[in-house]
Design a protein that fits this description.
A hairpin with a 2-residue loop joins strand 2 and strand 3. The protein is globular and about 40 Å long. The protein is α+β, with helices and mostly antiparallel strands. A four-stranded antiparallel β-sheet has the order 2-3-1-4. The chain has two helices and four strands; from the N terminus they run βαββαβ. The mean pLDDT is 96.
Length: 79
């Protein structure tokens, strides 16, 4: 069984929450176009000046997603 990796994009500033929410829309579009095996996305508001958008990928897809979408960081995903 392959690992799941949470790719994370950080947004900072007063518009961070709205930007992260909007970025998730583009992540969902990418998943649909690429027919990704996982369909896990989301956004989280860390505080009023920091929010993240994320997408979960498998080990096999991590390199191609990383090179195409250039996330800021990644962590192992545990559901």
């Amino acid at each position: 069984m392959s690992r799941k990796i949470k790719m994370i994009w950080d947004f900072r500033g007063p518009a961070a929450a709205k930007t992260a929410e909007h970025h998730e829309i583009h992540l969902k579009e990418y998943i649909a176009i690429e027919k990704s095996p996982l369909n896990i996305t989301g956004y989280e508001i860390i505080n009023e000046m920091h929010a993240i958008a994320f997408m979960v990928v498998t080990d096999e897809n991590m390199i191609s997603v990383r090179d195409t979408l250039k996330p800021h960081r990644a962590v192992l995903f545990e559901a």
